[in-house]
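F.,

This is the one I mentioned.
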């Protein structure tokens, strides 16, 4: 008897499988290429995310609105102008201790500059505040939120060690009547790393630096300084000029201009590899206000400053006079200081009289501009 159904014959029983057409083979190739591209894109995205997260994680921040409050702060007068307080901390914590062996506990603001960028952002003015200036400190909160009472005739650089960077911002605002939009703080290790990431910075001295008290020893002339020697250069007090803190400000201003010129000359902001080295070195020891505390925010701010030419940047020391009670200290000179702050606050030209400091330090001359030198090969 014969069945009405026919059993299917499997390939194993001798049936020939369907031929692989060129179309199906091409589809598999396209799928393989698509998967490969997807893996490469995800890998690149993963690397980019790691870089972004790594650099972002380096940045410490302080919320100024929370630390200072929003009441009793100076109003913003010129909306599109920017005022940035730049602090150099002399902390000996961590890697910083290897770079300076001074017997100093805690940290102080070793360098303080209020950088004013006018509306249009085509130029800038940096005002250095001498660390030995006797000032009136407003009531503040320290890093733990504990109240720090107001005090008169305290050294400016002691404010940082007692109550932290937010109180320094509040003190500068009280001194100047200028709203500080941002602050940036870099410590010893961060400064050294930035210079080394650039391959060094070139400075020119019109007189020798003697190396007194463990400082840097240099002949008059042009020198290419690495990170370690650059740190010694900006911290040199004894062995150059009159050995005063006011004289050191001239060196710090000179170096800042030389470093900015180096960044511009190397087009460091337009070179991704070099930009990463700079960002990685700089952010490792960087503290900012919370509005700048991301790689995106810092990059946007840096790009907005590209029109500022270091060659036209003006550097000024806050006018001060020697204190009549303690000649080792200085006090804010009036009416010069008020004229200076008012010009910056209202985005006006600074009158010559506002730049005349009774206590000059050093030779009293403006710092010498760095000479041009060939850029080193890209690291």
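My design for it:
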């Amino acid at each position: 008897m014969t069945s009405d159904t026919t059993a299917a014959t499997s390939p194993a029983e001798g049936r020939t499988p369907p031929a692989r057409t060129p179309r199906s083979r091409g589809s598999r190739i396209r799928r393989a290429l698509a998967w490969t591209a997807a893996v490469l894109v995800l890998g690149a995205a993963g690397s980019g995310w790691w870089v972004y997260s790594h650099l972002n994680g380096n940045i410490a921040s302080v919320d100024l609105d929370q630390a200072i409050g929003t009441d009793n702060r100076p109003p913003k007068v010129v909306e599109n102008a920017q005022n940035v307080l730049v602090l150099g901390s002399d902390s000996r914590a961590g890697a910083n201790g290897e770079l300076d062996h001074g017997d100093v506990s805690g940290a102080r603001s070793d360098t303080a500059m209020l950088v004013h960028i006018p509306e249009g952002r085509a130029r800038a003015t940096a005002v250095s505040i001498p660390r030995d200036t006797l000032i009136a400190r407003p009531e503040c909160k320290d890093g733990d939120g504990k109240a720090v009472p107001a005090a008169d005739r305290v050294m400016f650089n002691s404010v940082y060690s007692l109550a932290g960077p937010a109180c320094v911002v509040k003190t500068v605002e009280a001194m100047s009547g200028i709203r500080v939009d941002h602050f940036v703080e870099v410590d010893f290790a961060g400064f050294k790393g930035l210079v080394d990431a650039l391959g060094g910075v070139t400075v020119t001295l019109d007189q020798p630096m003697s190396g007194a008290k463990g400082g840097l020893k240099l002949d008059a002339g042009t020198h290419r300084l690495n990170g370690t020697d650059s740190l010694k250069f900006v911290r040199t007090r004894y062995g150059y000029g009159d050995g005063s803190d006011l004289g050191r400000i001239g060196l710090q201003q000179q170096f800042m201009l030389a470093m900015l010129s180096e960044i511009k000359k190397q087009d460091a902001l337009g070179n991704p590899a070099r930009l990463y080295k700079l960002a990685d070195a700089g952010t490792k020891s960087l503290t900012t206000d919370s509005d700048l505390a991301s790689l995106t925010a810092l990059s946007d701010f840096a790009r907005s400053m590209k029109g500022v030419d270091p060659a036209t940047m003006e550097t000024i020391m806050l006018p001060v006079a020697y204190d009549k009670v303690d000649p080792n200290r200085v006090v804010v000179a009036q009416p010069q200081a008020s004229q200076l702050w008012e010009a910056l606050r209202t985005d006006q030209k600074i009158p010559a009289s506002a730049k005349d400091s009774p206590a000059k330090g050093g030779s009293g001359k403006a710092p010498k501009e760095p000479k041009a030198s060939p850029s080193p090969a890209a690291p």
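The first helix runs from residue 22 to 58.

Talk soon.
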